[in-house]
Design goal:
Two copies of one chain form a homodimer.
Chain A (H helix, E strand, L loop, with lengths): L2 H17 L6 H8 L3 H7 L3 H25 L4 H17 L6 H7 L6 H27 L9 H22 L3 H11 L5
The structure holds a DNA duplex.
DNA sequence: GTCTATACACCGATAGAC
DNA sequence: GTCTATCGGTGTATAGAC
């Protein structure tokens, strides 16, 4: 990918995390990057084009993070901690929430194509957590009541909710809620 | 409160739940209500005035709902079920999420005054859930690991996240996730 | 309390020169 | 790949008549 395109996408993702998709404009990007709106339209003719590529970028980035966590030679408990820290980084580096949660909140505003992309990213995240949960069960470190797929769904959506809550109340609350959430996984 | 004002506020809340605060305009309201934008400005000079009154209205409405649940002569388990159903109604009646979650997602876009109002509403909801949890413990129906205030925070933020997830994926998922969440409260 | 009319800023987007 | 210039549309908001 060309450098400028990548630069625009990465800035856009930070703006989605902080303000949401509808709340930043080509003018916002152009001021920040020091180029004109027309130049940005050269790379992404319609804003929806940028929106779709930004989703693909997030998707690829998260899959990379998940694979990195899975390939580490540590236990499921530690992999879960690594995962929780991914979100902790967002809120610590400036009032940011999960970009996917941000887009979910705008579900009825963004295009059908973007909505579908958001769903695919959610699916990837849920599959990842399900894998970690199954690993933890094998290692006798996790004990899970009910359906494992549902527990994965609960974890991913609860953390997104916790991030949103913490941003507006107290950043430090996020990790406390995350730890309270994972308490239930412990068999003792 | 005058009838028209109430009508504008109630419509605005439905729009916040469906699209978010920044994504509806005085034009949206005026078309729906059959009056002009100028007439709406007569009731709420600035949009932020509407935003603040809409928050107060949500606050009062939710406190009323919570008190209604608490005053019922049923057990904590059933009160929790009543609470879960409040959110279920939102998503079932047309792609809507919790208005507070919607405003949380726009935290860096709305005014400081609105942000503070949102926090107060969250506080009321958390106090309510904490009360229900303590009641359930007394009744020997709930068993809670860790801090009760944290568990309340987890429940309220997890449900908001579950609503957002379910709206974009599959409405029926919400209640399944909610039930998976409350599984942890059961001692057996 | 509602209207018409209007102001002004910003939005996404395009044409065309360099 | 970047620019200037510009378009039509929409956003919040106000003035003033009825």
């Amino acid at each position: 990918m060309e450098n400028r395109k990548k630069q625009i996408i990465e800035l856009s993702i930070e703006l989605v995390k902080k303000y949401g998709y509808d709340s930043f404009s080509y003018a916002t990007l152009s001021k920040e990057l020091g180029i004109t709106k027309a130049s940005i339209h050269h790379h992404f003719q319609r804003k929806d084009d940028l929106g779709l590529e930004l989703c693909s970028y997030i998707h690829a980035h998260m899959v990379k993070e998940f694979n990195s966590i899975l390939s580490k030679k540590n236990c499921a408990k530690e992999k879960m901690k690594d995962y929780l820290n991914l979100y902790a980084k967002m809120i610590e580096t400036g009032d940011k929430i999960c970009p996917i949660a941000s887009l979910q909140a705008e579900a009825n505003v963004i295009s059908k194509e973007m909505r579908e992309e958001v769903c695919l990213i959610d699916d990837a995240e849920n599959d990842f957590i399900e894998t970690v949960l199954n690993l933890g069960i094998k290692e006798n470190d996790f004990y899970i009541k009910g359906d494992i797929k549902l527990e994965a769904l609960l974890i991913t959506s609860a953390l997104k909710g916790a991030l949103q809550y913490s941003r507006i109340h107290d950043k430090n609350k996020y990790m406390l809620i995350a730890e309270q959430l994972t308490l239930r996984l412990q068999s003792f």
